[in-house]
Amino acid sequence: MYPNHAGWEVGNFRAGASGCSGGPNVSYSDLLKDRRWQRKRLEVLNAADWKCESCDSSDDSQQLHVHHKRYVRGRKPWEYERDELQALCEKCHAVISETNALLDDAIGSVRMIGEPMLSMVLGYVEAIVECATLERNGFIKPRSYEHAEGIGRATGNTAERILKLGDIGEGVNVSWLETERKP
User: Fold this and answer.
1) CA dihedral (55, 60, 61, 62) positive or negative
2) Domain end: 112, 139, 166, which one?
3) pLDDT tens digits, one per residue of 88-130
4) 33 is in which domain, residue-wise?
5) How many domains does the chain have?
6) DSSP 13
7) Residue closest to 73 by CA, chosen among 21, 18, 23
8) Predicted confidence band at 24 (pLDDT cuts at 50, 70, 90)?
9) Which of 25, 38, 39, 115 is the most buried if burial means most Cβ atoms within 10 Å?
10) What is the CA angle 32-35-37, rounded to 5?
11) Domain co-membership, 74 together with 105
12) Global confidence as pTM
């Protein structure tokens, strides 16, 4: 049985939930049987050479899964780009699923605390994502002192420096800050 992922429940979908929306009577399991998902799944597994993209295992005793790295409200399982999907062995998929569940719980706890902690955590996470992937453009515009403090903690800088740099141009180039960090 699959673990609960953001936006879907084992069994039937909740109407309007984030993640895949197959309607109130369509289960996630049914969506995974759709020919469009099966085609997308094979594309991902072929691109990964039928190996786990986390541990590089090609052990035939472990079934390979295709993991959605994130869920987007309204998307069906097959409506994701290749970089949003990952071929994983059962063991790695279980570890990532458990880690995601813990992260969801932690985020829920931070939301309960509210501002200004929420802005600081957001800055920290955005800086980590930018440094790790350069997914956007490497720049973050600080929204508040707390947001700048989170960016600073992730990059080894002070909130004051982040705010000063953020006033120039597009914002703070966090990939540059990461390489400039002193040990």
Assistant:
1) positive
2) 112
3) 999 999 999 998 888 888 888 888 887 888 888 888 887 777 7
4) 1-112
5) 2
6) P
7) 18
8) low
9) 38
10) 45
11) yes
12) 0.62
85: helix, strand or coil: strand
Q: What sections of 59-144 are H helices per DSSP?
A: 90-113, 117-133
Strand (E) or helix (H) holding 149: helix 145-155
Same structural domain for residues 12 and 90? yes
Residue with tokens 């800055």: 123
Whether residues 95 and 167 share a domain: the answer is no
**Which tokens in the block code for residue 83?**
């970089």
Instruction: Report long-range pairs for 140-144 (Cβ below 8 Å, ≥24 apart).
Output: 140/166, 140/171, 140/172, 140/174, 141/166, 141/170, 141/171, 141/172, 142/166, 142/171, 142/172, 143/119, 144/116, 144/119
Tell whether 105 and 151 lie within a shared domain: no
Query: Do 139 and 94 have their domain in common?
Result: no
Same domain assignment for residues 27 and 103? yes
Half-sphere exposure of residue 169, counting CA atoms within 13 Å on the CB side? 7
Q: What are the φ and ψ backbone dihedral angles of 5, each rounded to 5 degrees?
A: -110, 165
Q: Scanning the structure block, which residue is given the tokens 């605390």? A: 113
